[in-house]
Amino acid sequence: MELNTNNKKFVIESLEKGYRTDGRGIYDYRNLIIECGPSFGNVQVQLGKTRVQAIVSCEIVRPFPDRSTEGFVNFNSEISGMSSLEFEATRFTDLEVYISTLLEKIIKTSRAIDTEALCIIVGEQVWSVRCDLHFLDFDGNFIDAAVIAAITSLKHFKRPEVTKDGEEVVVHSLTERAPVPLSIYHTPICVTFSYFEDGKCFVLDPNLLEEKFQAGSISIAVNSNGELCCINKAGGVALDSETIILCTMVASEKVMEINKIIKNALI
Question: How far does the signal peptide extend, from start to end residue (predicted)?
Fold first, then answer.
């Protein structure tokens, strides 16, 4: 479908009547598939036709002087030019920066991961955990797919066991000792809404066509305990408090469903 005025009118008028171009209801998520790879921390998420792969790795580094007992958790986003004609393979897009920053807010700022558990020797050696996100196919809503892929890969990941032999730190292979999972306090999951015109009409999990015609979007992160972790509004027209409260309530319900899918994928 071409992105012209007639199609925009068709999409918005359909939404006002409670219909969507792909046949979903206003609050319906697309089909979510989570596949955990053979190696720890390798996870692929498919949300409709949007596909994201997350790979977690770790290394031993020196901590910051003012946080000598804390390790690191970092996120890196890479959008492949093959995912959509909109993205160039050699260009670091604003969307990549936005997704990485939002992941920092949702997972790190909410203290979902115990960074002190990543400490090996205070002030000298800590684990630096890195989550690389590769965006393979794009049909809207990269944000939710990225957050689901990132938190699932972190829960799936296990680091090598380490022991101290005098002053020397020994890193054991996976065959010598059982690897150690990360200490994760809670599971924040992001739910994104697109809104149109004056903000009175909005939909859950927008596809690419809906994103093209949206007046703005709001992403709400809630954890498995029902606690609000983050609200991020990416510009657009203003939303009243009633709309935000309604979106938060819907997000809380959807997070419970998504969390069950994540648990089943990790079994």
Answer: none
Instruction: Look at the block and give the residue holding tokens 């408090």.
Output: 241
Query: Residue 10 corresponds to which tokens in the numbers above?
Result: 């068709």
Given a contact cutoff of 8 angstroms between Cβ atoms, the answer to whether 42 and 153 are in contact is yes
Domain 5-266, second-level architecture: 2-Layer Sandwich (3.30)
Instruction: Summarize pLDDT for 80-120 with one digit per residue, the tens.
Output: 777 766 666 545 578 889 999 999 999 999 999 999 999 99
| pTM higher than the cut 0.85 | yes
Sequence letter at residue 253: E
Tell me the one-letter amino acid at 183: S
State the chain's maximal CA–CA distance in angstroms: 73
CA distance 143 to 260: 19
* DSSP code per residue over 101-147: HHHIIIIIITT-B-GGGGEEETTTEEEEEEEEEEEEE-SS-HHHHHH
CA dihedral 130, 160, 59, 223 (to 10 degrees): 20
